[in-house]
Amino acid sequence: MKKFYVTTPIYYLNSEPHIGSAYTTIVSDIVARYKRMRNYDVFFLTGTDEHGQKVMNSAKEKGISPQDFVDQLALKFKTLWKEIGLTNDYFVRTTDKNHEETVKYIVEKLIEKGDVYKGTYKGWYCIPDETFWNDGDVKVENEKHICPECHRELKWVEEENYFFKLSKYNEKLIDLYYEKPDFVEPEFRKNEMFQILKAGLNDLSITRTTFDWGVSVTSDPKHVVYVWVDALMNYISALGYPENLEKFEKYWPADVHFIGKEINRFHSIIWPAILMALDIPLPKKIYAHGWLTVNGEKISKSKGNAINPKILMDAYGKDAVRYYLLKDISFGRDGDFSEENLIIKYNSDLANDLSNLVHRTLSMLNKYFEGVIQKPEITEEVDSTLLNILSCNTKKYLDLMDEYSFTQAMETLWEIVRMSNKYIDLTEPWILGKDENKKTRLATVLYNLLDSIRIISILINPVMPETSLKILEKIKYDNTHINENNLNTSLLHYDVKVDIGEPVFVRIDTENWKRVIIMNSEESNIKNKEDNKKEEIKKETENVISLIEFPDFTKIDLRVAKIYEAEEVKKSKKLIKLQLDLGDLGKRQIVAGIKEYYTVEELLNKKIIIVANLKPAKLMGIESNGMLLAAKDGTSLTLLSVDKDIKEGSKIS
Ligand SMILES: [Zn+2]
Fold it and tell me: Can you list the residues of the chain whose pLDDT is less than 50?
């Protein structure tokens, strides 16, 4: 059996898990499930990084021992990953006894080999990042030495340390990058690493003596191993290296280490060098993804967006969040998790496209064949279009998933979903259903649709496992068949009675939906808005009618306009964008603050009155060409309209 070993970074225990740490872990889970679907023997590893000065300080602040501190936090990670349905095969902790033994063994082996030697370290150290910096990298601002990574103040450190001969592997690493151009991905991140290699590497201090929360060096116990070197060993200690070589030899080398871009240097330079020194084969790939912002802001507790993924998943379902992360965030690049976009994708891709396809098809099968899948018999030209897309896009989807191009993979899969929906429109089963002679053709159409739904459900399984099972349960498909052997068409059994049940996704009513992520800045926006409203009401109740001359009135060009398109302005709680037809005067767009009073559906095809000669203005960056007329009291608003039908563009006088 082919094997596949996938790892996440191990999470440093100085904060609770949030959507950022969940992102890498969820993506890795999807890859693990995907490889299992493709019949690989998968080992999926995640865990926690628990040593170092920062952890020790945090424990001190809390007044508990470092061990208690890490036990509590590690449990939170472990529990959360279970709760959100992740399928890691092992959870490694760097305070695990066997991990510590591995680290000790490796350091001694490297000392023996001469690749680790004792020297004096003098230089700058960033405590929050646990990172040493060379003089050339350090920034000086207001006479303070600043960390180039996190911009916090550095500490000057001078101490006896053990050093790893990183410089010795400089050339070998450069060769590696030439020989295996896809060792680090994406390419632009590889190039960053390549620059560092070409600039030349210094030896790396790998022990500390100023604190003791770490793995001590066996032959010189006042030294503890530098937390980063300690952490990297998890990828092999978790497999039992050097004790249990059977498991190690089965899964090593890792097929992919998924990491965040901020730790690329450790994984793409230091880690392979250490492995070279140990004569251990190198991992096949390091994939460094970008950073996630949430609702456009850097994730932080104070902003209120360091959200626990479970809260999101409780609101939207695990599968919708997983799908959204994969579809909307281009893996490898920095991306933004936007709750508004999640809702949009939920409604369009999941409720509208996928769920409707399943529900429509099952409803028709219920109506015409009492829910029993029929044997396909009469095929027509249009069927081959669907079947072609099915086989062609299935292959494309697998290729894209293999290269971690998730967004494109989802797009490819949804082409099948949309084509299947289109197939319904093209074959018009409701017309076939009226004609007794066309029943066999109808049977074939519905069979093809169900077979397409079956293949979609297998392909989507790694990303949306619950949804996949729900759909396959409806069509009574054996869930032990969820693997790549069953991706050919026409493998669905007939003479089986389906179970229609509830739709798998139901549209979210965006108007009345309570958002999960409340940004702290948003709270103040809401308050501002309320203040503005009070101000508006105050103005309006001070009703003063001032008199004007007739020529003043004629300056205003009022017209009848028909709304042919209405769309909510996503980032606004108030605005709706309207496309208006003014007959001979052409078409135009206006933006109006009526979201609280009208739904988009209500507005469609309404004939309203607008001021047509108002200078264009921009509202939230959207051009508005004119203004609609509305009457308003303290609580309600109604649009002015015409009480008989009249041509669009008619003048009001
Ligand atoms: Zn720093």
Answer: 540-545
